[in-house]
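Dear Dr. V.,

Thank you for agreeing to look over these. As mentioned in my earlier message, I'm a first-year student in the group and I'm still getting used to reading structure tokens, so any feedback on how I've presented them would be very welcome. I ran two proteins. I've put each sequence directly above its structure. The first is here:
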Amino acid sequence: MSIVILGVFAADCAFRGQRLPSMGETVLGEGFALGPGGKGSNQAVAASRAGGDVHFVTRLGRDIFADMARDVWGQAGVTPHVTEDADSYTGAAFIYVNADSGDNAIIVAPGAGGQLSPADIDAHAALIGGAAVFVTQLEQPMEAAHRALQLARDGGARTILNPAPAAEIPDAMLALCDVITPNESEAEILTGIAVASVDDAKRAADALLDRGVGAAIITLGENGALYRDRDTTLHVAAIRAGAVVETTGAGDAFNGGFAAALARGDSPADAVRFGNATAALSVTRAGAAASMPDGHEIVALLSRQG
């Protein structure tokens, strides 16, 4: 069963250090890495490595970062569906990683991916409409995501929106989402409810259900994830796979693993648990796409949990 993901590729320029500089200040870093990223691309890599048949729809420039994108998709088994844009550039991201905690702060310049339009989506209508599971985020223009969700829904796909970066989303678009997957801060921006506990997450999920989504998954970091639809509430505990190296890409790992599990027919509870395990493994490694685990690693971690 195919998974189609719409999103952006960005080359991640990751700097490790003790703190971000203030305006006008220069600080010495403790490390640097250049690697593949972008939320949609990361999710495609995660879903494919987790065992999914993944197709990725995006735009790229004609430059060295586009070559990087094609290489990483080829290695992960992702089938790309790319519109090339010679007048733009392939996306890039600045990532600051705190050397002590592994937490991160990110600036993304989507480049060609930021030019994705409803016309680009219509050019891939048959692919999107034929998906078993469709996933998108908000790094590309919202109009493109909205059109793709409509085509996927019309074709009978299970639709997943990862609302990142957080933005105001019209109710008509939320009504096309079988599942929405915000983290705590994204849930607060969408609902106005500060999420500091599982009970807060339940209230935020209810607010999203009231706006038309089929189910909400609020990812809670070390507190796992809350799944809530109109009939079921599940708090799925986090899984620990080892020491945290950095959290870049953890949300993308969750979404990719979750999509792969749904596509093969797992229940929501099992799919959330699979997503948690995918994310748990990813944070034990540096990088975004480079940190995504293989399916056998995820299954082995779950089997050790009992």
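The second protein is here, in the same arrangement:
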Amino acid sequence: MKKHDYDKILFRLNSIWQRLREGEVLSVKDLAQEFNVSTKTIQRDFNERLIQKLPIEKIGHKWKVKDGHSIDKNLSFEEDLVLDVLKEFASSMGSGFGSKANTLFSKLQNTHENPIYSKIEIEDISDKTQLIKQLQESIISFKQIKFQFKNKYRSLEPYKITTFDGYWYLFGKDLNDNKLKTFYIKDINNLIVEDIFFEKNLQALKKLDSAINIWFEPNNDIFEARLLVKEDIAKYFKRRPLSKSQVILKENKDKSIEILLTATSKKELIYEVKKWQPNLLVIEPTNLAKEMLEISKNYYKEQLVFID
């Protein structure tokens, strides 16, 4: 479906939704003429889209809100769709967080079957609610914190709570050695918010924003890498770039593409290349290409052990 087609559908559904909310009884034929579509299209709007979300019923060729029901939660179709997506994401964060999120969503939405399904899995941190609250307060107010992490005490300027591959981390500057670091949130204990203020570190936030995965090294200089993406997976890299820095340099006759992106560590790139082997290859830098070759050789040697 093209974007302008989606926009037309969204506009039509929002208009119908609003009029039903205001108590109108709507004719399929009249709506088809008004929006310059077929009656089958309007029937599809009601039968496949609106009826899932609204307490509505069909009377002959017209639709209205069921007797004894009201649509008092003033959400547009698009707003309700956004909440359905967020609700599905919340359910991916475990039963603890998911049940709390569903209670919140029930205050905003009418009850209906959620048409959205997501395979994203995010770590459940509902047991760390108090810690998250403290971290949020310290980040917003630019206050330093102290906490215990793997049997060591740290003093930190907290910048962001973030996720990588579904796991939660705290990103900030470790004042013990003045380096930018990520800390796995479930290993943080005994946190104290101090009355010591720090300044916003825009450079650190910029490095976090361009990170490819948890293996990024925010204290390192940024370097460029050029990768060959074979035809089999090229469409995925076009749909969703590997990072915000990704640029398509060239589209080859065999439908492979060459991309350029920035990174802060070899591990950051090796992690991604290994996931997509053998369809993702390193062109530059040469030292990284050589390291990937050695990793691949060792992998195949070890794999051969299990083959008769």
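From my reading of the second output: The first strand starts at residue 26 and ends at 27. DSSP finds ten helices and twelve strands in the chain. Does that match how you would interpret it?

Kind regards,
E.
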